[in-house]
Write a structure and sequence with these properties.
By secondary structure, this protein is an alpha+beta fold. The protein is built from 12 helices and 20 strands. The structure holds heme C.
């Protein structure tokens, strides 16, 4: 071998090993800037910035751990089952690069090859809103105590009907605002209740949720998005926005004055659309009762969709004991699709998972939901020590559970038929719970626990028991027909409110 060939060979080997060596500028920065820096930058939700070589190098070891066990980036759908458009999780190869980089001694590489940090617009992520409304006064959230659910009225002063293509929420103090629900109130009852309550907003009084139009919500950690596929929410003129905010005191007294940006549209919705929650109403009538210490409590629910529709997104909701959240769709031809599969539910990270392609669900598609709860002392997220028996309720130390798909229809009749089937589902659950006489539905039938609740429960049970002709404690499909009519005519279904979007 001549010396010049040797030099050539040597330099080839050197450049090959330089290429193989994982460095910041070429390999790590593209991942971190795209998949981490949305939150890990100044003024955002994450505790430190990951926006340059020095800051990323400082956290290199920790990053290997949190990417390796998939706690970061936060994304709770199990990998490999469903393709979501907003998936921010890393591939196996990307995860391996972090440990290779650490093993190589976290070299910087050639700074000239560093990609630009994506620019995130300041303020409103969806651009300048058509209208911004803010809570008229700050609300004081105490240092300690129970979770607070409070409604705030924000007049929109619209003199004509309109459509909304998106809503963006800005929490006043992101450390205590857990999630919110948006309603439109055309009754004026929200304003009255606000005026009658001396503190900002109002608590239990005022219009029921069913008297208002539900138009979605926002959860901790979710990014704002315009509605997809040309869909719109309808906003009747003169309606007020009522925002129900769920506050979770965090040890320090603070005030919150949140804002909402509205993005209006001249165009009406491209298609009728709504939600299919399984079980409906956050599992209120599911009869959830979890024993103290129970390691894996399972709840199941099944709903058959009566009409054709297309699902475009899915989300789940439970509180701190929730663990496994799964929904499959079994089509009439027998094929089964995963809609959501998470083995590691996390209350802190609730978001809409948007399907890469809308999924066609023909009439007769069966949705099967499995929810599991861990009420043992070993569950690090269990808010109660030692664990207590937990039933359905709205406080974060109670439990609930639902998986909801967002669906588009071709006609309004399809949507109405689906809403009616969901109401029947609830009526059937109400019948089952009344026959069981479970404590967990006392609040619903009686308004309050105690003697009056027990009386109301008994009063509602008697006609159902009378329908049970063979006295086996269950109703046959035929016996259910008048039972459902009885439940539908009673106050219960009305109190539960609307079931989907108008
Ligand atoms: C959607 C927002 C978001 C994204 C994207 C994100 N993080 Fe985080 N990260 C957070 C928040 C919030 C915390 C604080 C921990 C918590 O409250 O759960 C955190 C904490 C961390 C921590 C500290 C963990 C600990 O135990 O203290 C590391 C390390 C980290 N993130 C790395 C990353 C890396 C690496 C990426 C990208 C591959 C990433 N994060 C993407 C929001 C995010």
């Amino acid at each position: 071998m001549t010396s010049s060939t040797r030099i050539l060979l040597l330099s080839l080997i050197l450049s090959a090993s330089a290429q193989a060596e994982v460095n910041f500028s070429e390999h790590i920065a593209p991942i971190v800037f795209n998949n981490c820096a949305t939150c890990h930058r100044e003024g955002q939700i994450a505790p430190f910035a990951l926006t340059d070589y020095a800051s990323v190098k400082k956290h290199a070891k920790q990053m290997v751990e949190v990417t390796g066990d998939r706690t970061m980036p936060p994304w709770h759908a199990d990998p490999g089952f469903i393709e979501y458009a907003n998936d921010r999780s890393l591939s196996k190869d990307q995860i391996a690069l972090f440990s290779d980089w650490l093993a190589a001694g976290t070299p910087e590489g050639d700074p000239a090859k560093l990609p630009a940090l994506p620019v995130i617009p300041e303020g409103w992520q969806l651009g300048k809103p058509s209208q911004i409304v803010t809570m008229p006064e700050p609300f004081t959230v105490p240092a300690e105590g129970n979770d607070i659910y409070r409604k705030f009225v924000m007049p929109l002063n619209l003199d004509h009907d309109t459509w909304v293509s998106g809503v963006e929420f800005h929490p006043g103090d992101p450390k205590v605002v857990h999630h919110i629900l948006y309603y439109l109130d055309s009754t004026g009852k929200g304003r009255q209740a606000d005026a009658a309550d001396p503190s900002p907003g109002f608590g239990g009084n005022g219009p029921s949720n069913g008297e208002m139009r539900y138009i979605g919500g926002w959860d901790v950690g979710s990014q704002p998005n315009l509605l997809p596929h040309g869909l719109r929410w309808f906003v009747p003129k003169g309606s007020d926005l009522v925002v129900q905010i769920h506050y979770h005191p965090n040890g320090k007294e603070t005030t919150d004055q949140s804002s909402v940006g509205f993005y209006y549209s001249e165009e009406p919705t491209a298609r009728p659309w709504s939600i299919i929650p399984v079980p409906p109403h956050f599992g209120m009538l599911q009869g959830i009762e979890i024993d103290a210490g129970e390691k894996e409590h399972i709840e199941k629910a099944t709903f058959t969709i009566p009409t054709d529709c297309e699902a475009f997104a899915v989300n789940a909701h439970a509180h701190y004991l929730g663990k496994r959240m799964e929904m499959t769709a079994t089509l009439p031809d027998g094929t089964t699709h995963w809609m959501l599969k998470t083995s590691n539910w996390d209350f802190q990270w609730q978001e809409d998972y948007t399907f890469k392609q809308p999924i066609k669900l023909p009439a007769g598609t069966r949705l099967d939901v499995t929810l599991s709860y861990d009420n043992s002392a070993e569950n690090p997220r269990n808010p109660t020590h030692p664990p207590k028996r937990v039933i359905w309720g709205t406080s974060t130390t109670d439990e609930m559970g639902v998986i909801t798909i967002q669906v588009m229809f071709n006609t309004k009749e399809q949507k109405d038929t689906t809403h009616q089937a969901l109401r029947d589902f609830l009526a059937n659950q109400m019948i089952d719970r009344l026959l069981e006489g479970k404590e967990s539905i006392m609040d619903l039938v009686g308004g309050r626990r105690g003697k009056s609740a027990a009386k109301a429960l008994e009063a509602a049970r008697l006609p159902l028991l009378a329908l049970d002709l063979d006295h086996d404690g269950k109703l046959t499909p035929e016996e259910r027909i008048p039972a459902i009519a009885f439940i539908m005519a009673g106050p219960f279904m009305k109190n539960l409110g609307a079931i989907g979007f108008d």
